[in-house]
């Protein structure tokens, strides 16, 4: 999971490795249909924070953790992707299947299984009990969502069900912790193998369903009434007119909030960095170390950290979208667009999660059954505007675009520009998909099936934890990659010394590297400072901000100006547009390249993708360049407003 | 409706899920898809004999959500067309099953 460590999109807790043979705990796997609450239970048992969301196909690889039993022993728990049966049709199901049957070399075969079923839809979910019990492994049948079952007037006799299945049954609410004791009891017990019972022929789905229905009715299962609120909300969200309207309003509100509500918080952070920087400058004696601290760390790392509130707002919206169940509806509304470019409706969910980060998005393409569709989705996912691009976009937009109202108080020019950039990325993605799907990745159709989950209230706790985890990832990145880059940059900017002093920044090692690059990027309207930023942004896109912050911090001319003003000196408006386009298209992300290689099983696709995106990023701008538009020659027009 | 010469099949058997409007219900007759795809649909509850109700849809009517066996599942038109159904009449015509 190394890619995940340095990425915004999957900030969950790191996963515990199995301890050595000394402890040799039992290994127990969580299995069940998609969206039945396996990961919620996993998190509750292990205290970890793997991603939970309200749509099928969230977990796409196995995760392991340790559950501490009340008696002090520990048990290894494996969380698995969802399964409809033991005849896998997609990559994620294959993972679950292989772990359960012991066919995965990197994972020990589980000694017991916790089968997590949704008790509000028991008759159908019980079908999976047949193949799982047939494995002959000790199994606890967990009927999850007990709270929901009760609230909607459903009922089941667990004792009878247990007798029917020959295995223990527990009625649990993983979300509220109800019935978890029974799970711990099972884990602490000798874990008996299931009693031999008559099971249906596994390949005969109708027979399995008949069997499940019979078992359910013998356990006096009474299904709950249909979720009233889901129907009501769907009559709005899937209304032919109101639905798309709500969709548009939500999108506009998100962008406007990113530019308005986040501002006071960002100003606060900036103020904090200014004050603490002054304090450090006043407290420490004048030394090389102090100048590294002030010029490198404070102006470099600080200029990135300022964007934390904005990134958190984005994740707040993504969290609400995913936890409420609206995401599946959005995928439904967007399906026509996907179909037009030849893609599956299911591709939309990875694309949406790519707004957070391309790495987990590329992993989540495993739910797409058709391999060619899956590859096409992997190839276009990095075009979606990930959260690392957001700070870069907002910095440049705020530096070059005054914030005039566009739609009265509801939408400002800056939010509109940001929205435009997100659309640009999306358009590049769908056009590319269209090209791929009508050429090298042409394929037949696999039917599009998407289960619509019931709407659920996102809990404060789950949203709060998500934001906390994201903040941690963001700050960790600022404190590691970006810090390292700025320190290296600072050192390079101070070499070679001239008369024992730092050279003028243009003549330093860093400046020389930048000016060597200048001819290549000049056609785009960038000078050497931006060039250095482009190089460092390969480590992580937002590093360019830290880099520019540090360069301006060291350059006495721009030192006083602040990042935005200094940028206006260095970029023409044309150059600013080119820079935005460059960030929209270029695949500047090592983690993404690594995960594409892993998921496609070779270098062929990541190389193709990197080249294609690079050509777009570079070539997208050249033809429209006016000859006199090279490098800031004329002073930029003054902007009346300097706030964000 | 034009009847082709020697087609003696009752009209209902040529109906598919696509013909259902919102709120209409029907009984699934058979799935006209290759084994693997049909199997996945069956695992999701689309079994012959089951009652399916058409629900909301994306703007333009495609894809549409169907209520089947306790869950709501969205299908594209191209897939729904392959699910042959018998319409449930509120007042079944005499002689109909
Ligand atoms: N009401 C209620 N909701 C629950 C309960 N357990 C889980 N959920 C919700 O069900 C949804 C799915 O939970 P997950 O834990 O992600 O399900 P999963 O089985 O891991 O899903 P996949 O990884 O997609 O297979 C989330 O919105 C949870 O908050 C429960 O006991 N009661
Ligand atoms: Mg999960």
What does this structure look like?
The complex is a heterodimer of chains A (644) and B (97). By secondary structure, chain A is mainly α. Among the domains of chain A are: 204 residues, Rossmann fold (3-Layer(aba) Sandwich), CATH 3.40.50.300; 99 residues, no CATH class. In chain A, a hairpin with a 5-residue loop joins strand 2 and strand 3. In chain A, helix 14 runs antiparallel to helix 21 and helix 19 runs antiparallel to helix 27. The N terminus and C terminus of chain A are likely disordered. Chain B is an alpha+beta fold and 97 residues long. Helix content of chain B is 13%, strand content 30%. Chain B has two helices and five strands, in the order βαβββαβ. In chain B, strands 4-3-2-1-5 form a five-stranded antiparallel sheet. The radius of gyration of chain B is 14 Å and the shape is globular. Chains A and B meet through helix 9, helix 10, helix 15 and strand 7 of A and helix 1, strand 2 and strand 4 of B. Guanosine-5'-triphosphate binds next to helix 2 and helix 6 of chain A.
Helix-strand layout with pairing:
The complex is a heterodimer of chains A (644) and B (97).
Chain A lengths: L1 H4 L21 E5 L6 H9 L16 E6 L5 E6 L11 H10 L11 E7 L3 H4 L3 H6 L4 E6 L1 H6 L6 H8 L3 E3 L8 H9 L16 H14 L9 H10 L4 H18 L2 H22 L4 H18 L2 H17 L1 H15 L7 H6 L4 H7 L6 H10 L8 H12 L12 H25 L11 E4 L7 H34 L15 H13 L6 H9 L6 H12 L1 H4 L3 H8 L2 H13 L4 H11 L3 H16 L25
Parallel strand pairs in A: 1-3, 1-4, 4-5, 5-6
Antiparallel strand pairs in A: 2-3
Helix pairs in contact in A: 11-14, 11-20, 12-13, 12-14, 13-21, 13-24, 14-21, 17-28, 18-20, 19-20, 19-26, 19-27, 20-27, 21-24, 22-23, 23-24, 27-29, 28-29
Chain B lengths: L24 E7 L3 H9 L7 E7 L6 E5 L2 E5 L1 H4 L2 E5 L10
Antiparallel strand pairs in B: 1-2, 1-5, 2-3, 3-4
The structure holds guanosine-5'-triphosphate and magnesium ion.
């Amino acid at each position: 999971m190394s890619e995940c460590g340095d990425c915004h999109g999957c900030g969950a807790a790191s996963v515990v490795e199995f301890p050595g043979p000394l402890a040799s705990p039992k290994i127990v796997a969580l299995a069940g249909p998609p969206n039945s609450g396996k990961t919620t239970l996993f998190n509750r048992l292990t205290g970890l924070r793997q991603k939970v969301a309200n749509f099928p196909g969230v977990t796409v690889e196995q995760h392991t953790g340790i559950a501490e039993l009340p008696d002090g022993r520990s048990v290894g728990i494996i969380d698995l992707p969802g399964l409809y049966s033991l005849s896998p049709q997609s990559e994620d199901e294959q993972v679950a299947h292989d772990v359960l049957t012991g066919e995965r070399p990197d994972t020990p075969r589980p000694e017991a299984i916790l089968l997590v079923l949704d008790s509000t839809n028991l008759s159908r979910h019980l079908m999976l009990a047949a193949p799982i019990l047939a494995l002959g492994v000790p199994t606890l049948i967990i009927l999850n969502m007990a709270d929901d079952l009760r609230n909607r007037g459903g009922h089941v006799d667990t004792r009878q069900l247990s007798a029917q299945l020959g295995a223990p049954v527990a009625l649990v609410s993983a979300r509220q912790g109800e019935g978890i004791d029974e799970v711990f009891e099972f884990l602490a017990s000798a874990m008996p193998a299931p009693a031999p019972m008559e099971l249906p022929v596994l390949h005969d789905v109708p027979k399995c369903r008949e069997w499940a229905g019979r078992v359910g009715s013998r356990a006096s299962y009474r299904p709950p009434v249909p979720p009233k609120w889901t129907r009501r909300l769907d009559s709005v969200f899937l209304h032919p007119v109101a639905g798309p309207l709500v969709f548009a309003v939500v999108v506009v509100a998100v962008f406007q909030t990113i530019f308005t509500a986040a501002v006071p918080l960002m100003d606060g952070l900036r103020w904090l960095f200014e004050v603490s920087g002054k304090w450090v400058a006043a407290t420490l004696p004048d030394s090389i170390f102090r100048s590294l601290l002030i010029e490198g760390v404070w102006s470099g790392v600080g200029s990135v950290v300022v964007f934390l509130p904005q990134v958190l707002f984005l994740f707040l919206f993504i969290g609400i979208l995913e936890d409420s169940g609206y995401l599946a509806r959005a995928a439904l509304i967007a399906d026509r667009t996907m179909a037009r470019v030849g893609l599956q409706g299911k591709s939309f969910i990875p694309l949406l999660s790519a707004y957070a980060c391309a790495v987990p998005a590329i992993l989540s393409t495993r739910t797409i059954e058709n391999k060619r569709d899956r590859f096409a989705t992997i190839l276009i996912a990095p075009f979606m505007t990930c959260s690392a691009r957001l700070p870069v976009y907002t910095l440049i937009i705020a530096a070059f675009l005054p914030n005039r109202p566009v739609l009265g108080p509801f939408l400002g020019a800056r939010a509109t520009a940001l929205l435009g950039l997100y659309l640009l990325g999306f358009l590049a993605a769908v056009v590319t998909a269209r090209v791929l799907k009508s050429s090298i990745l042409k394929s037949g159709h696999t039917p599009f099936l998407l289960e619509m989950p019931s709407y659920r209230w996102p809990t404060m706790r789950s949203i709060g934890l998500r934001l906390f985890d994201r903040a941690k990832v963001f700050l960790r990145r600022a404190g590691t990659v970006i810090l390292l880059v700025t320190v290296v940059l600072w050192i390079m900017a101070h070499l070679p010394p001239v008369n024992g002093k730092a050279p003028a920044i243009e003549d330093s090692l860093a400046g020389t590297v930048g000016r060597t690059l200048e001819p290549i990027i000049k056609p785009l309207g960038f000078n050497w400072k931006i060039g250095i930023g482009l190089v460092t942004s390969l480590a992580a896109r937002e590093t360019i901000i830290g880099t520019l912050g540090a360069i301006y911090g060291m350059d006495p001319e721009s030192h006083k100006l602040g990042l935005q003003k200094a940028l206006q000196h260095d970029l023409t408006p044309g150059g600013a547009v080119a820079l935005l386009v460059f960030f929209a298209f270029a695949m500047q992300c090592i983690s993404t390249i690594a995960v594409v290689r892993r998921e496609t099983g070779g270098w062929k696709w990541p190389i193709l993708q990197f080249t294609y995106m690079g050509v777009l990023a570079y070539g997208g701008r050249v033809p429209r360049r006016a000859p006199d538009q090279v490098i800031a020659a004329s002073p930029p027009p003054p902007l009346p407003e300097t706030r964000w | 409706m034009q009847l082709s010469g020697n087609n003696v099949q009752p009209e209902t058997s040529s109906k598919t899920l696509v013909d259902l409007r919102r709120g209409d219900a029907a009984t699934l007759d058979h799935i006209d898809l290759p084994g693997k795809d049909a199997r996945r649909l069956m695992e999701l509850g689309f079994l012959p004999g089951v009652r399916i109700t058409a629900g909301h849809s994306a703007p333009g009517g495609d894809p549409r959500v169907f209520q089947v066996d306790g869950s709501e599942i969205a299908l594209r038109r191209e897939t729904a067309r392959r699910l042959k159904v018998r319409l449930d009449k509120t007042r079944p015509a005499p002689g109909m099953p």
